Amino acid sequence: QVQLVESGGGLVQAGGSLRLSCAASGDSFSNYVMGWFRQAPGKEREFVAAIRWSGGTTWYANSLKGRFTISINNAKNTVYLQMNSLKPEDTAVYYCTAGPTYRDVRGWGQGTQVTVSS
Questions:
Q1: pLDDT, averaged across the chain
Q2: Rounded to an integer, what distance in angstroms lies between the CA atom of residue 38 and that of residue 63?
């Protein structure tokens, strides 16, 4: 089983940037896909981005391409989500995930709150 701990959330003004981190530990996850989902108040949880643990292959929600970048530091067992040009509609709890594919999620972090003020 993999354990995931997010950090880096907070309050930022529209147009600003934040970098979220997800520290992974536990069972071997070298074959996993690591991802980020988010859930805004009153809305369903939605996919944000994902990356293969071995690196290279990434996936993004079409609406977020160009503003969000996912990356990984295998030596630190940490996945990052760089978020630029933030908008109030990006306000949500952001969750780190792990699984065989980005749709087949086997582990969730506790979430980190991102609030973008207008």
A1: 95
A2: 13
